[in-house]
């Protein structure tokens, strides 16, 4: 799909801000979403040399946190060149030269994007789902790409604010089984308690 100019504009602003004050911009779903992901990987003793792909890395802050936790085989992709420029600057500032960063459209991934042990998505599937032209088709492409880049038995950790657990189970039923739902903050609206964020761990069959 054609790069969405509003995402590019947002990352260009964050790039400018980073250059001005050294602030990497906002963390999608906040700090706790990164802690939740890293806690799960550590609890399940996912080896530190596992290959990890951050799908839609944005400013790359999750990769930096993973590197600080000891993970050494990290790749981030984003289809926005401005996002990759920003994450490169963040990587340099943090002194993390071994984080690999690439401009990639996940719906049409290049051949070398394959064989990952872990794939992580915070908000990219959400963004694809909001695409005005053929969102359902784009979601299918996404699932197909995930099957291509993630090894059998590999883990997929997804954080979403658009989809319920049941909807995500349905979207990823081809080729994936759910391992765990991760706890996320609850919110109360009109007396009903709901989750504003869903975080699931799938394993590729």
UniProtKB/TrEMBL annotation:
This is EFMT2 methyltransferase. Pfam families: Methyltransf_31. GO terms for biological process: methylation. Signal peptide: none annotated. Keywords: Cytoplasm, Methyltransferase, Nucleus, S-adenosyl-L-methionine, Transferase. SUPFAM superfamilies: S-adenosyl-L-methionine-dependent methyltransferases. Residues 51-180 form the Methyltransferase domain. GO terms for molecular function: protein-lysine N-methyltransferase activity. It catalyses: L-lysyl-[protein] + 3 S-adenosyl-L-methionine = N(6),N(6),N(6)-trimethyl-L-lysyl-[protein] + 3 S-adenosyl-L-homocysteine + 3 H(+). GO terms for cellular component: cytoplasm. It comes from Origma solitaria.
């Amino acid at each position: 799909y054609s790069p969405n100019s509003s995402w590019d504009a947002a990352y260009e602003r964050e790039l400018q801000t980073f250059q001005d004050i050294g602030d990497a911009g906002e963390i999608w779903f906040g700090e706790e979403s990164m802690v939740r992901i890293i806690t799960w990987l550590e609890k399940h003793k996912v080896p530190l040399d596992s290959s990890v792909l951050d799908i839609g890395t944005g400013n790359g802050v999750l990769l930096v946190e993973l590197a600080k936790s000891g993970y050494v085989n990290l790749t981030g992709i984003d289809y926005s060149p401005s996002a990759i420029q920003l994450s490169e600057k963040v990587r340099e500032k943090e002194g993390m030269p071994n984080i690999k960063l690439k401009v990639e459209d996940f719906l049409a991934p290049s051949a070398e994007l394959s064989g990952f042990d872990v794939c992580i998505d915070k908000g990219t599937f959400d963004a694809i789902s909001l695409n005005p032209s053929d969102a359902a088709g784009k979601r299918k492409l996404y699932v197909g790409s995930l099957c291509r880049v993630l090894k059998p038995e590999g883990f997929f950790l997804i954080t979403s604010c658009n989809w319920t657990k049941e909807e995500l189970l349905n979207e990823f039923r081809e080729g994936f089984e759910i391992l765990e739902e991760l706890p996320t903050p609850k919110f109360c609206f009109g007396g009903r308690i709901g989750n504003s964020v869903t975080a699931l761990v799938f394993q590729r069959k």
